[in-house]
Amino acid sequence: MKIIVSGGGTGGHIYPAVAIIEEFKKRDPNTEILYVGTAHGLENNIIPDLGINFKTIHVKGLPRKVNIKSFIAAKELFKGLRESKKILKEFKPDAVIGTGGYVSGPVLFASARKGIFSVFHEQNSYPGITNKILSNYVDLYFVTFKESLKFFKKNANAVVTGNPIRNRFADMDWDKSADYNYFGLDKNKKTIFSFGGSNGAASINNAVLEILKDISMNQNIQLIHVTGKNNYDEFLKNAETIPDNVKVYPYMKEMDKAYNVSDLIITSSGAITLAEISFVGLASILIPKGYTTENHQEYNARVYEKNGASSVILEKDLTGLILLREINRIISSPQRLEEMESASKKLAKPNAAKIIVDEIIKRIR
Asked: What is the DSSP string of 161-183?
């Protein structure tokens, strides 16, 4: 079987693609995979390092207002369409899968027009414009949240799957003692894990800075905080001193270990992060980034809030005091914490990648 996968720009589009690829390879190691991305996207760093065959096309996002950039983007789009057609002709895939980002648009459009079995996966509760358009052309599409179906016209072609996550979370080592030792933490204290996505979030960093002294004085809690690589030095400079019960990192490679020791998560509400924390069943305080496309992070966060899994604080309302109050409100009540953990676990879709691959194989055969 030969499969083309395309998605890029952010980890939220790339890692679901990797999870789907892992599932295909798990079924049949001889499955031929070609990943199509851009030369300047994050996928250009991640995918080749995973040993996945990788090709690039030209594409730019269309600006919301018509200006000179619109013409540049249109020119790049047509170039990307030509390149996509060439790749399809040479590789001859049995199916093409898009996981979002501008790059998946020309690839999926070209494959659908050529009659190749074409699908996409939408990670967010509020879908992007590319997938809204593509839903009119593809054979099938998958969504993480059932709430997103109202934004598409052809629901008959939709399957609610949840968000595919990588195997490393399915194979987590649940020996917590080893992971507490890894971080140098006390297993008898409640652990809070705060981060703002792969690049960090200034709003969360600033709020955490404001409450460092309060955390240092509370002997019942401890904090793991990830600043983002570009914010690490500034965070340490502004903090002056880091309390003993606070561990600060520029980037967290061992996310599975951090989740394993955590009792409460503080983070923005990217779709991948939500899929991971519900998979491991953790309570959360969500601070959606206010500048995301179509404000999709707030839509994601509200789904979790509605189901009792999370508390939501908007960036415009966030202060250290408000964050500290919310932390204390949740951590101080074992019953509340347990209810949020249970609600979070109910939102998990651990078989998302399996469902997607099952549907694709069933249809193309």
From this structure: ------HHHHT----HHHHHHHH
